[in-house]
Write a structure and sequence with these properties.
Blueprint lengths: L11 E5 L2 E4 L6 E4 L4 E2 L11 E6 L2 E6 L6 E5 L4 E5 L4 E3 L4 E8 L2 E9 L16 E3 L2 E3 L1 H16 L11 H8 L3 H17 L16 H11 L9 H14 L11
Parallel strand pairs: 3-4
Antiparallel strand pairs: 1-2, 1-11, 3-5, 5-6, 6-9, 7-8, 7-10, 10-11, 12-13
Length: 254
């Protein structure tokens, strides 16, 4: 494919279920229920949920839907990111895997580009805030997720039955249970707003298995990894420091 002198450097293909689709640098390629790549007639799937286009010398993957996130990963470097609606990511790795869940069904396809960056640098380790598309987590919110996911991060093959209770996770962090529950509500609300299912029930009713769903989502999207386990001790030290800090007459930390 050559368009306006772009040449072989801009070649790209999408592979799904053994079929390959060649991309055009002058056109936007859409993926969805009724698109250039119609992956399934699934009513939970947007007509167009993702798009791929060429711009500024590289290919870009964008989430053009309104509620379904996509997991983007590259096996060699271990890179993984969650692409939420309204965000985009450059395709710099040569071969990128994309996973989309719509209702009970999960779909996976690959994007192969010739415009890969040589020896791309993996994303830096998170510090302070973690950004997932347009959603940011505070250090305390990240530590909460890690405390729930700790048994699964420490040992391979452990299932959801090992996830600690809210009371045990709060104790692990050195928090009162009320603080833990408040922050768990906030985290579940954040991810519910970007389309992560199972974190809330019906109107005014929290999902009964939200801790398990939160851990499943966090581990599968690589939001938390073994490298984040130290955040638990960071929170414990912080709480210990606050307990020994001077307080105002109103009982608040000065």
């Amino acid at each position: 494919m050559e368009t306006d002198g772009v040449g072989d450097f801009a070649r790209a293909d999408v592979e799904y279920c053994g079929e390959r689709y060649a991309l055009d640098v002058d056109a936007v390629f859409y993926v969805g229920r009724d698109a250039d790549l119609s992956i399934d007639d699934n009513r939970y799937l947007h007509r167009r949920c993702l798009s791929i286009h060429y711009e500024t010398g590289m290919w870009w993957l964008a989430n053009v839907g309104s509620r379904i996130p996509a997991k983007v990963s590259e096996a060699t470097t271990g890179f993984a990111a969650l692409l939420v609606p309204g965000t985009r990511i450059p395709l710099v790795y040569g071969m990128t895997t994309v996973v989309v869940a719509a209702g009970p069904t999960t779909y996976e396809f690959a994007i192969e580009t010739s415009s890969a960056v040589t020896n791309p640098t993996p994303p830096p380790h998170r510090s302070g805030e973690t950004t997932i598309g347009a959603t940011a987590l505070t250090a305390a919110q990240l530590a909460l997720i890690v405390a729930l996911a700790e048994p699964l991060l420490l040992r391979d093959g452990v299932d959801a039955s090992a996830i600690p209770s809210s009371a045990r996770a709060a104790e692990r962090l050195g928090w009162p249970l009320t603080k833990f529950n408040r922050k768990l509500d906030n985290v579940c609300d954040k991810f519910d707003r970007i389309g992560v299912s199972g974190l809330r029930g019906g109107p005014g009713r929290l999902a009964s298995n939200r801790r398990a769903r939160l851990v499943e989502f966090a581990i599968s999207s690589r939001l938390v990894t073994k490298s984040d386990l130290g955040s638990i001790d960071d929170q414990r030290r912080l709480c210990l420091g606050l307990q020994h800090s001077p307080r105002t007459s109103a009982g608040e930390v000065a």
